[in-house]
């Protein structure tokens, strides 16, 4: 409501609100959903990102996310319940705002061991 009122004040404020502030808030919502493991918020933020992908001439991303938004409908009830509980993300330590997807979790694990005293050799730890 506040942003809409601000955007109606002038053309410049409308440009700032529509092209920057709303997009930044959308990115913040997406990051929050990923970090907290909040699947409904994640799907909502992805749905709100779709027009940006089409407007930026990224049809492949747009098509993938259309498919991605439909994929939870095909999951079993037990899988949906696990996703809603936040079991689709991983954490190095228990807590909030520290969840990561499996790809990022694996990367941070390798980076942590690779920069420690014992370096990574291939995919094993040096004894």
Overview of this protein structure:
The protein has 127 residues and is mainly alpha-helical. The protein folds into two domains: 1-76, no CATH class; 89-127, no CATH class. The protein has six helices and two strands; from the N terminus they run ααααααββ. It has helices at residues 2-7, 11-36, 39-55, 59-70, 77-84, 102-114; strands spanning 120-121, 124-125. Strands 1-2 form a two-stranded antiparallel ribbon. Helix 2 (11-36) packs across helix 3 (39-55) and helix 3 (39-55) packs antiparallel against helix 4 (59-70).
List the helices and strands and how they pair.
Blueprint: H1 2-7, H2 11-36, H3 39-55, H4 59-70, H5 77-84, H6 102-114, E1 120-121, E2 124-125
Antiparallel strand pairs: 1-2
Helix pairs in contact: 2-3, 3-4
Strand order of the largest sheet: 1-2
- Rounded radius of gyration (Å): 19 Å
How much β-strand is present in the residues?
A: under 5%
Overall, the morphology is globular
Q: Biggest sheet, open or closed, and with what strands and sense?
A: 2 strands, antiparallel
Q: Give me the strand/helix succession.
A: HHHHHHEE
Question: In terms of per-residue confidence, which ranges show pLDDT below 50 for 5 or more consecutive residues?
Answer: none
Write down the domain tally: 2
């Amino acid at each position: 409501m506040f942003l809409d009122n601000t955007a109606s004040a002038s053309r410049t404020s409308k440009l700032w609100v529509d092209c920057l502030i709303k997009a930044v808030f959308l990115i913040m919502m997406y990051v929050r959903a990923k970090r907290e493991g909040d699947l409904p918020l994640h799907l909502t933020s992805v749905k709100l990102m779709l027009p940006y992908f089409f407007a930026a001439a990224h049809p492949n991303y747009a098509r993938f996310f259309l498919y991605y938004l439909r994929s939870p409908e095909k999951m079993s009830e037990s899988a949906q319940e696990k996703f809603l509980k936040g079991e689709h993300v991983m954490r190095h330590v228990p807590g909030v705002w520290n969840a990561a997807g499996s790809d990022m979790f694996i990367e941070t694990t390798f980076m942590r061991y690779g920069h420690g005293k014992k370096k990574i050799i291939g995919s094993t730890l040096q004894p």
